[in-house]
# Entry
Amino acid sequence: MTNSLSSNDFVLGLEENALDSLDHAIEHFRANERDTDLKYAVLHVFHAIELFQGTVSQSWGRTDL
# Structure
């Protein structure tokens, strides 16, 4: 088994992934159709924050944050 990426693999950078998570959080928040929508909105917001923090850490060259 190999871990190399081919040209067909789909890869998102940290910032793109964070924005996607934030967009998904907004979808859950606006939908509010199920009891779990608010829970998932909060979860996705915190995931986005964590990813944005990773982008800042990368730009500073830090890995300990």
About this structure: The mean pLDDT is 84. Residues 37-60 form the longest helix (24 residues). Residues 14-60 form one domain. Helices lie at 14-31, 37-60.
